[in-house]
Amino acid sequence: MSNDAKRSTDEQKKLDVAIKELFEHKIVFNEYLGFTMGSHTAGSVSIDFKMRPELIGHYMHGRLHGGVISAVLDAAGGLAVIWKIADAYSNESADQILERFKALATIDIRVDYLRPGMGEVFTAEANVVRLGRRIAATHAELRSNEVSQIATSSATYIVS
Predict the structure, then answer these.
(1) Distance between CA atoms of residues 84 and 40, nearest Å
(2) Is residue 3 part of a domain?
(3) pLDDT grade, residue 4 (50/70/90)?
(4) Would you say residue 39 lies in a domain?
């Protein structure tokens, strides 16, 4: 996938800023839900967000809505794929890498809801299990400051 040339430090900073802007603001749904990009490496990311009244699914117990759980796990998987692609094509400029994301879309996601979504601060972590030429596979987990494991997911994404 990649040759030996690496993008410059300035170009990497440009890419870092562009991906953060894309994820947190240009994908307006992520912005509405309050998702912020946490740590990242090649193929591994974390996403943080805070509980708000708009995210409650069970009004009597104040639990996080299952749709928000699914959405954050999907977003984390997609973001992990983005970082994996950026690493795999480290010889390409920020603009070339951003162009590659036009085809990125979820093919399938399976979410296992393990415990109620209780807490004030939530973190989703995702890892790329496999990045192929056309399809990527991920695994993700959601936890909160109160619950060690709320849900897990396995997902596949089209990458070309």
Answers:
(1) 10
(2) no
(3) low
(4) yes
First-to-last alpha carbon distance for the chain, in angstroms, is 13
Handedness of CA 141, 130, 29, 15 (dihedral sign): positive
**Count of the separate structural domains present in the chain:** 1
Residue located via tokens 């991920």: 138
Mean residue pLDDT of the chain comes to 95
pLDDT tens-place string over residues 70-82 = 999 999 999 999 9
Strands 63-64 and 135-144 come out as: unpaired
Q: Taking each helix axis as running N to C, give the angle between helix 9-21 and helix 66-88, from 0 to 180 degrees, rounded to the nearest 10.
A: 160
Handedness of CA 15, 16, 20, 23 (dihedral sign): positive
Q: What is the pTM of this model?
A: 0.94
Instruction: Dig out the tokens for 12 from the structure.
Output: 């990497």
Q: Cα separation of 125 and 138, whole Å?
A: 10
Angle at 123 between CA 17 and CA 88, to 5 degrees: 45
Here the CATH number for the domain that contains residue 106 is 3.10.129.10
Domain that holds residue 119: 9-158
Q: Would you state the pLDDT for residue 65?
A: 98
